[in-house]
Each structure stands twice: as C-alpha cells, then as structure tokens.
Specification:
single chain; alpha/beta; 4-stranded parallel beta sheet
Amino acid sequence: MMIGVLIATHGNLGSELIKAAEMIHGSMKLVAHVAVDQDKGVEEIKKEISAGIKKLDQGKGVLILTDLFGGTPSNLSLSFLKAGKVEVVTGVNLPMLLKLNEVQEGTTLEEFAHSLKEYGIKNISLASEILGKKFSG
C-alpha cells in the first residue's frame, strides 16, 4: 500500500512538474494533479481536490503538494487536512517529486510529509556557495 500524492498548483505547473519527473525517473504511480485557474470556481476546485483524494487514497492517506503557502491551491487544500489521512506540504519542487518513490515504502503519512519537506528545502541551493565562487556586480 502506498501514499497517494495530489499536486494542486496555479495553472498547469503541477502537471509540468509531473512530466519532468517522469522524464527523469519514469512513470509515477498514485500521483495526480489539480490545476487551479481563473476559469474555475472555488466549489469546482474543491470537488476536483476531493475527487483526487478519493481516487488516490489506498488506505495510507494522501499528501497534497501545493506551490505556494497562502495561495488559492494551498488555501483550498487546507480544508481537507485530516490527521493521518490528508496532509499538505507547500513549495513543491522537482527534487521532491523525484524523491517520491524512495520515501514512500514503510512510512506513515506524517513521516512522508516531513521527509519530502526536508528534501525540498535541502535541494534549494545558491550555486556560488556550492562552487565557492564570488561574483562582483
């Protein structure tokens, strides 16, 4: 049994992240996307998120990844928070998606959410720090 992952983002950012991750890592199981755009009403988006959660939940819960804390995808996703069933992590990035299959086995939804959050943060880098170079401007 695996944890489902629903990516809720402004526009098609989530589906493009999934495409990029699949290009690098291959097909992703139990991952879906909800696009939040100006043509949809709040209730329509909530129905899509609810349907996505139901579709992805195999008994271990669903993690919702959103692009921006405080944005509409995040705010609407927060209404589905339920301990042990639905968790939300904001700031989704490509490294987080590439890590999905590695951290899912044998972890709880809470452990999975914390692990992905830490991995996403860890993979934000300032290149000049890593390379030890200084740039003058």
